[in-house]
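Lab notebook, bench 4. The sequencing result for the construct came back, and we need a structural model before the next group meeting so we can plan mutations. Quick request posted to the team channel:

Model the 3D structure of this chain.
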Amino acid sequence: MGKYIYELTMKVRDYECDLQGIVNNANYQHYIEHTRHEFLRSEGISFARLHEQGIDPVVARLTMAFKTPLRSGDEFVSKLYLRKDGLKYVFYQDIFRLPDLKPVLRSTVETVCIVGGKLGDSKELYETFSPYLDE
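Done. Here's the predicted structure in token form:
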């Protein structure tokens, strides 16, 4: 496991739970997406500005392994680290319940960039992410 470079604390809202009283599986994707977006924002990256430059980062593949369910009112921390694999940036994102840090979710999100309408590399993203990449 790499070292985490960003974390975000959140709380489960009632409407995110299903009839079983646990967070519906689809909401975990929202949690990890929100974490990535907040990380990018903390690094000064604007999706709107990238798009205006013809750069569109997109999710190419996503895997999620569920460990422990969250319930309404639970607080949790969502953590991430990343690696570069060719043209892909791979975000490793884990969620832990608070305060006991019990593992809730392990996920991997592979992202690529569409640059000028074609699969490519983004100099802007590389420069932003390079301090966090193991090379």
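DSSP finds three helices and six strands in the chain.
Will bring this to the meeting.
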